[in-house]
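User: My advisor, Dr. K., asked me to get a structural model of this assembly before our group meeting. I'm new to this, so sorry if the format is off. These are the inputs:
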Amino acid sequence: MNMDSMLQVRNLKKYFPIKGSLFGAGPSYVHALENVDLDLYKGETLGVVGESGSGKSTLGRTIIQLEQPTAGKVLFEGKDVSALKGEELKRFRTNIQMVFQDPYASLNPRLSVGYAIAEPMIAHKRFASKAETKEATEELMKKVGLQPSMASQYPHNFSGGQRQRIGIARALSLNPKVLICDEAVSALDVSVQSQILNLFNALKRELGLTYIFIAHDLSVVRYISDRILVLYLGTVMEIAPKSRLFEKHYHPYTESLISASPEPSTAKRKGRIILSGEIPSPINPPKGCKFHTRCFKCMERCKVEEPGLREIETGHFVRCHLYDEKGRN
Amino acid sequence: MSRYITLRLAKGILTFFIAVTITFLIVRLMPGDPTTALISDSLSPEDALVLKESFGLDKPLYQQYFLFIRNLLKGDLGYSFFYKDSVASIIGNKLWWTLLLMGSSLFVTLLIGIPLGVISAKHQGKLLDQAINVAVVIGVSIFVPLLAFLLLYSFSFRLMWTPIGGAYSPGIDSSQMFGSVVSHMILPCATLVITYLASTVLYMRNSMLDVLKEDYVRTAKAKGVNDRKVTWSHALRNALIPTVTVTGLMIGKMVAGAVLTETVFSWPGVGTMIYDAVQKQDFPLLQGAFLVLAASVVVMTLITDLVVAWLDPRIKL
Amino acid sequence: MREKTFLESFSRHRLGVIGCVGVALILLAGVVGPFFVPFQKGYGEAMPLAGPSAENFLGTDALGLDLFSEIIWGARTSILISASAVLVAMFIGIPLGLVSGYSRGKIGALIDSAIEITMTIPTLPLMILISALVGPSVRTVAVVIGVFAWPTLARIVRNSTLKVSQMQYIEAAKVLGISKGSIMFKHILLNIAGPVLVDITLIMATAVLTESSLSYLGLGDPNVWSWGGILQTAFKAGHHFRAWWLVIFPAASIMLYVIFFNLLGIGINETLNPKSRK
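Assistant: The format is fine. Below is the predicted structure of the whole assembly, which you can bring to the meeting.
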């Protein structure tokens, strides 16, 4: 690939300690992310899919420094940002912003929406005068499809879709280069979802944004993404350009995900693959391949040895023993 | 010693140490000359000089502090201007009366409050809820001297059922002592019990309601264990844990109630002594009274901690 | 359907409304009253220790002064002291509670222990010692009460802060680079105003109880009228058995003040959290 990689995640690991019980067996951890590697290219939309508990939200939160990584690095424009503090961290915040999942919980009910959008600009001293800040706020509101006259109202006067627009305007107030959308439409009605997705696409074109779009809903990710990353128990299972992934996926987990997602447009649906059992606990992840306990193509080898992430075709990576041979090509 | 007791003990010692430090700083950092606070004008100049040296008031602050602590550890709380006696021995004579009053009041409060709380948890209803709520509001709003006065006025002056004041009738022999003290203690004790009963009932009731919702209580009931037995043995022990914890926190407030009660009934404890010391501007006595009461509260809190530990199977003693 | 406003819900809480009306009357008596009733000083012209009459309808004290006027001026003292004590308690308790609830870690643990220890120490004897040393005045009493009232407020602020800081909008503010100070003193404080208000009414109540206790023990400001001070004078002179009005009216004022503020607090609390009815 010749595109510029603006954000690199290298060997990112995030373990959450669990408080030992009273009858204390040693400390245990939730293995949220295990050695995640990814590159984010300028101008693309990277979709991240996985079931709940796959670590996809933690990935976004760790990239944006809401969580400190246990190990590994997050590089933004070549600079390690995973240990930033104080003013440097504040400056980094203007590069990557986030749109949160729950439009009802992510806006402070006691602050007017105009203030919610203007506050980051005031905190970062983007403008010298109040008038300029106000103008920029109104500009942002228009950009996301809200009437600037509503700036003095409080969140409870807005619908879920409108609130999410406010959240987007607020995230854009710092002129970020990258936007992480963590389940940004999953709390919305389906009809509203498509409006917001279209808004994301329009903003991307207009502002030249780069997205990391985290969702459990494959159809949403398919609609918006250029590339898709499949996460299972904190581990990257497959990464591929969207067009390729839906045509030819290699990992049995991806296969099951795609077969389970409703796809009205394509008539060539094969039989649905229904995975047995639940996603294993991230406190005691399975040895070997993380997916082997539910895999319908599981081999003896999968239970003991974890496969590596191999590039099978250009830009298409898979972590599965089935393709070891091809990987060697 | 288990971790729990060690921790509680350390916290108790720290609390008392902080109380000591606050006292030390207050007396010395207040505007004006600390000498006047610690040494009365009525003392002879020679006595004043001796006292001044014993406080180390001419030395730097940190040396005074060490001296203060050392004296405390030796049990030396200073010298009272008014009584012309050491503060420690004066308070030593009064403290037991205060502890007796507080201890019996606490005992009676729990003795009545716990069963009342359990019974009220078993008989829920709007009327009872309201009654308890109103009682709690009145309880926390009681101005102790008024309640004490009303009791004294009705039972001692009007009805003449109880003695007017003091802790025992003068000139009686030791065989009558117990009865005399009990009859003198009824009203002061009643004052404190009335003041603190409602909150105890409320806490007991709420924790009982919580416990009755727990799985093991429902399991016991489902297994056909007698309802009475479930309430009074299975549930009670667990419901007592939060109540005793809260009682421990109440002790500090109860000291205030006891001080005020004593003054109305001329109970010969630390409270009445504080009242007199205020009138006489006897600062060393006031300082000693606070330190001793703080220490008593720390010890009583430790005792409630131990009771909690005994009740709570999750804490290993 | 429109959500009910706070006032609409509150107006249905009977005890809360009683408390609110009572508090309003007390404020009226204490703030406006002194402009209409003369300050009592020296010796009165009325008969000393006379019971309630048309002239002095709450009776007179041992100096022949009008008890009603003394009580009105006493209301002013109570309001002044409890309100100042609340300000002092807020000044200490709110920042400490916010910091301990928001930034956890070592500082949080330190503040928690400070709260716990201050709550264990018997404060009345300590307040007596301080007031006696500094000399009784309205200012001393107000500051001393406020300084020892902060732990309950700090604890409430802390617990509410712990809850609010879990909210996504706090994370959002963090990601947006909003400073810790703004997050605590704007984003969080605005959302915990309810419980803070409730605790303030409760502090108003206990402050008057403490103020009256100190005055009753002879540590009130000798230059102002206070309800506890009237009681102290009566008890000290032994008039309390002969002139019941010198005990009942000031003591009733104290208790009504406390009850009304408590009821107001309960009303606000139960309107804000309908489920948490105790």
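One thing worth pointing out at the meeting: The beta strands of chain B are 79-80, 85-86.

User: Perfect, thanks a lot.
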